[in-house]
Amino acid sequence: MTEDHSILFKVCGMRDTENISEVAALLPDFMGFIFYKKSPRYVGDDFQVPFNFPSSIKRVGVFVNENIEVIKSLVEKHKLDYVQLHGEEPVVYSSELRNSGVGVIKVFSIDKDFDFGTTTAYESVVDYFLFDTKGKFYGGNAVTFDWNLLSRYNQKIPFFLSGGLNESNLGGLGKLLEFNLVGVDVNSGVEVSPGFKNIQKINSVLKLITTNN
To answer: Which sign, positive or negative, has the C-alpha torsion 94, 97, 99, 102?
Structure first.
C-alpha cells in the first residue's frame, strides 16, 4: 500500500429509508443493500433506494447464489454500481456479471484453514475481494477473524476487510497497511438491530479510518 492510499469506507446491510439517509449524510464511499431473502437484513420486496441518495456513494447489491438474470434486473432497477457475491458463485458467473457492466466484489469467508489459493481463479473477473469471518451465516456473524492470516494472501487484488468490525477492534487497522487493503466494511458491529445502524458508532469508525489514512 502506498502512503497516499486512502482507506475506503463501506456500510452494509442498510434497508430503512430514514437510516439510509442518516448514514448517507456521512458520505461513506460504498453502501450495501442485501437482496438475500434469508438474511435478517434483507431489504424486502418493496425496497427503493431513497430519491435523494448521494451520487458519490457507490451502490452495492449483496447476493447469495442468486439467479444471474435476477441480479441483472435488480442492478438495472436500483442503479447498482457493484454486486457483492457472498455465496459459492463460480468464476464464469462473476465473469458474466462483470462483462454486463457492473463491478464485482467477491466474498471469501476466512478461518484458520482457508486456502487463499482459492482466490486466484477470480483475479481477472472481479474488482475487489472482501474477506469476511467464516461463521454460521453468509456475513453478519459479528465476529472478527485472525487478521494475521492475511499474510497468506498474494495481495494481487485489493480487498475489503469485514467481519464484526467496530470502534473497539479497528484500532489495530494500522498493522494491515502493508497489505493490499482498499477499505473496511461495517455491518453488524455498528448496529442497533439488524439492518438499523448506530450513527454514533459509524462516526467513531470513520474517525479511526481517518487516523489510519
So the answer is: negative
Please tell me the distance from the alpha carbon of residue 153 to that of residue 116, in angstroms, as a whole number. 6
4, 12, 16, 45: which one is catalytic?
A: 12
Q: Has 185 been annotated as catalytic?
A: no
Known catalytic residue at 146: no
Place of cell 467464516: 134
Predicted confidence pLDDT, tens digits, the chain (213 residues): 334 458 999 999 999 999 999 999 999 999 999 999 999 999 999 999 999 999 999 999 999 999 999 999 999 999 999 999 999 999 999 999 999 999 999 999 999 999 999 999 999 999 999 999 976 555 455 678 999 999 999 999 999 999 989 999 998 888 898 999 999 999 999 999 999 999 999 999 998 888 776
Q: Which cell numbers in the block locate residue 74?
A: 435488480
Instruction: Exactly one of 4, 81, 127, 132 is catalytic; name it.
Output: 132
Question: Where would I find the H helices in 47-103?
Answer: 68-78, 91-99
Q: Which residue has the cell 487497522?
A: 173
Domains belonging to the chain, first-starting first, are: 8-212 (3.20.20.70)
Q: For residues 58 and 48, what is the distance between their CA atoms, to the nearest angstrom?
A: 15
Whether the full predicted model's pTM is greater than 0.90, yes or no, is yes
